[in-house]
Automatic annotation (TrEMBL), chain A:
InterPro entries: 4Fe4S_Fe-S-bd, 4Fe4S_Fe_S_CS, HdrC_iron-sulfur_subunit, Helical_ferredxn. GO terms for molecular function: 4 iron, 4 sulfur cluster binding; metal ion binding; oxidoreductase activity. PANTHER family: IRON-SULFUR-BINDING OXIDOREDUCTASE FADF-RELATED (PTHR43255:SF1), IRON-SULFUR-BINDING OXIDOREDUCTASE FADF-RELATED-RELATED (PTHR43255). Gene3D superfamilies: Alpha-helical ferredoxin. It comes from the Bacteria. The keyword Metal-binding applies. This is Heterodisulfide reductase subunit C.
TrEMBL record, chain B:
Keywords: Oxidoreductase. Residues 434-454 are annotated as: Disordered. InterPro entries: Cys_rich_dom, HdrB/HdrD_reductase. PANTHER family: COB--COM HETERODISULFIDE REDUCTASE SUBUNIT B 1. It comes from the Bacteria. The keyword Mitochondrion does not apply. Gene3D superfamilies: 1.20.1050.140. The lineage of its organism: Bacteria, Pseudomonadati, Aquificota, Aquificia, Aquificales. Residues 238-336 form the Cysteine-rich domain. One of its GO terms (molecular function) is oxidoreductase activity. This is Heterodisulfide reductase subunit B.
Length: 242, 454
């Protein structure tokens, strides 16, 4: 049989089939070794309330019940296969968590699975996250994730003609906000240099830059240029004080 | 006033104790997952052991008690607040924070808004997986340390930051390995106390909880100033959308109240609308998410559009014919607003105004719809709502705002910066950086960077 014989409705991909069994076990064990794993999964009645209320289940072939069940059954083949595209359908709303009678947290399990997929630089992950580059650039370099100038009408044509109007003469419009929120155009608020430097330290110490380098080397290089330039400026400004 | 009853019956000053259970549950509560309340006892134990320092809510924060889902009483500080801004709100819906600041000015409250804050980075984590719990914890504790250092109590604007921070707090309290992993990083950043402890706030507080706690004062302002301007919200039909990350992440720690659906649904936002006297209309998909989905809003927009239109906008328009959807998170507001127009192409156009509780409340209290509530940035059809509320002069008010933009633009183009600065002195309602908490000269992470130069 091409797919799994019950539950998981997608056929196991050829790529997954070709991966050595030991590698699949290693990846699944990496998920299970996360300290949160034991806090996110307890037992499962297979009641399906999580899937019944899951927004992604309405529009994708995605089921939080399947995630929990496959972990309980230690179904390595399916779990490994899920970690390529399946898990990216989850909208991280955690409706599954609040509704589960056992307080399982399938959305939390997905978060761990995504993290492990990114850390291991799965090809599918690289492709899926390409359009996310602008957010990654902002968050890694400034600690902000969204700014006024990111809402360009050509990127969001489906958001309507009002978007184009909003973006015209953007700087003056942002300055006209009479509180010191949203006055900047390229960041949500002006982030102090000291704060950005602290952020870079956190990324370095926790392996996030490393994660990014594997995921998207070009984006990593652009980000590191900005990081290094800011670090030099910081040294020039405050070096003697430190 | 309901909260006065709460105060007199149960009290909220508990020397040396964080837990403040009522003697009996004020409404039917679920008990199976009340384990969450245990973390407050554990926080005290960790503090006694010298591992953490609890940033406590004191009288100067003018706290107001509210019930949470398990009947625990949570203190909501209302004064001397450190604004943990939201990148989505500031970047996309600036009327959100502006309305909040406007209320704080109206009530004469003290607050601090400074550039020494990162976002929580949780949107990135939920959307891309490119972070980890140690990094998330370090970012949170870094921001919380900054708030504590300034003497102001953190108020979290974003729903995802609020949910993520509550989750991170639980993880930190329950897992020594996480505390051990994050401490050396915080030490490097200079973000531990002098005796090497991490700073954890007594409560993680969302702005909607502040609005909830302040609802009777907001109502007084509406009676005094809004109504005097001819504003009347009693005919307005309001559909509430609760944000997933406020009440589904660490579900126990969010306000529930006997007066709102007998304590069976989140109380924040609904309660302030009820206090203002508008009509809260119920609809069958109230529990559904908006479809934001973190990465979906950017890269899987067909999902976001489908969810927003079919499960929410259509239902809200057809079942209850609401005039406005009230939200309390950036992602939801954006999703509902921006996904209305596209429905036109498929004969699924359900125009309904969308805004946050604090924006609606500010409008009711007479705030300028464009200068303060910044409706200019909102894409939904808010004009019929303004008419229904009695704000019939919105065209003149919009022109006033547009003239201001034009004036600023002309001064800038002509290089008249001195004149511009003079104008801002009068115009700005919050002096930029007047309260920046470090003595260091101001330096921006972005202002001089070619990639970010405005």
């Amino acid at each position: 049989m091409d797919g799994h014989n019950y539950g998981y409705n997608l056929p196991i991909s050829e790529k997954t089939k070709m991966v050595p069994w030991e590698e699949k076990v290693r990846i699944v064990e990496e998920v299970k070794s996360d300290f949160r794993f034991k806090e996110y999964i307890f037992g499962c009645l297979n009641c399906g309330v999580c899937t019944a209320s899951c927004p992604s289940n309405r529009f994708f072939d995605f089921s939080p019940r399947e995630i929990v069940q496959r972990f309980l059954e230690e179904d390595v083949e399916v779990l490994y296969d899920m970690m390529h595209e399946y898990i990216w359908a989850c909208s991280q709303c955690f409706t599954c968590w609040i509704r589960c009678p056992f307080v399982n947290n399938p959305g939390g399990l997905v978060a761990i699975m995504r993290e492990v997929a990114v850390r291991n630089a799965f090809e599918a992950t690289k492709d899926l996250l390409k359009p996310y580059g602008r957010v990654l650039l902002k968050v890694m370099t400034t600690g902000n994730q969204l700014s006024a100038d990111m809402l360009q009408p050509d990127f969001f044509p489906d958001w309507g003609p009002k978007m184009a109007d909003n973006m015209e003469n953007l700087r003056a419009k942002r300055l006209a906000i009479p509180f010191d929120v949203g006055k900047s155009v390229k960041t949500a608020w002006e982030v102090s240099l000291e704060t950005a430097i602290e952020m870079y330290t956190i990324w370095r110490e926790t392996g996030i830059f490393e994660m990014l380098e594997k995921l998207d080397p070009n984006l990593y290089n652009v980000i590191m240029d900005i990081v290094e330039e800011n670090e030099e400026r910081y040294q020039e400004l405050y070096g003697e004080e430190e | 006033m309901a909260h006065a009853k709460l105060e007199s019956k149960w009290g909220y000053v508990s020397p040396g104790g964080i837990l403040r259970y009522p003697e009996e549950p004020p409404f039917p509560v679920k008990e199976y997952d009340a384990h969450y309340d245990h973390i407050f006892e554990m926080m005290e134990e960790l503090e006694a052991k010298g591992e953490i320092l609890i940033h406590r809510i004191t009288e100067e924060h003018q706290p107001i008690p509210v019930y949470t889902r398990t009947g625990r009483i949570k203190l909501i500080p209302t004064n001397k607040l450190w604004h943990h801004k939201s990148c989505g709100q500031c970047g996309n819906i600036p009327g959100y924070p502006a309305s909040l600041f406007w209320f704080m000015n109206k009530f004469g409250l003290d607050y601090l808004n400074e550039p020494h804050q990162t976002s929580c980075t949780a949107w990135n984590y939920h959307g891309s997986g490119t972070s980890n719990p140690v990094a998330l914890a370090a970012v949170w504790l870094r921001n919380m340390h900054q708030a504590w250092k300034t003497g102001y109590y953190p108020l979290i604007h974003c729903g995802t930051s609020f949910g993520s921070y509550k989750e991170t707090r639980e993880q930190l309290i329950m897992n020594k390995e996480l505390r051990d992993a994050v401490k050396p990083i915080l030490k490097k950043l200079g973000r531990l106390t002098e005796d090497g402890r991490i700073v954890i706030p007594q409560e993680v507080v969302h702005y909607s909880e502040w609005v909830h706690a302040m609802r009777y004062r907001i109502k007084e302002l509406y009676e005094k100033e809004g109504k005097a301007k001819g504003i009347d919200v009693s005919n307005v039909r309001v559909a509430i959308h609760n944000a997933c990350h406020t009440y589904k992440m660490i579900a126990d720690d969010y306000p529930y109240d006997p007066e709102v659906y007998n304590g069976q649904r989140p109380a924040a936002s609904t309660a302030v609308i009820k206090a203002l006297g508008a009509q809260v209309v119920d609809y069958s998909t109230w529990y559904d998410c908006c479809g934001f989905g973190f990465r979906h809003i950017l890269t899987e927009r067909e999902f976001t559009r489908s969810m927003a239109i079919q499960r929410k906008l259509k239902v809200i328009a057809e079942e209850v014919k609401a005039d406005v959807i009230i939200t309390h998170d950036t992602g939801c507001t954006t999703t509902f607003e921006k996904n209305q127009w596209i429905g036109k192409a498929h004969g699924m156009y359900y125009p309904v105004a969308v805004m946050s509780d604090v924006m609606f409340a500010a409008l009711a209290c007479g705030a300028h719809p464009f200068k303060i509530v910044q409706l200019y940035w909102n894409c939904s059809h808010y004009e019929p709502l303004l008419e229904k509320m009695g704000i019939t002069n919105w065209r003149e008010l919009k022109k006033e705002w547009e003239d201001t933009v034009k004036y600023i633009s002309e001064l800038e183009k002509a290089g008249k910066y001195d004149e511009l600065m003079e104008f801002f002195k009068e115009y700005d309602l919050y002096e930029p950086y007047s309260k920046t908490s470090t003595g260091k000269p101001r330096a921006s992470a972005t202002a001089n960077m070619p990639l970010f130069k405005s």
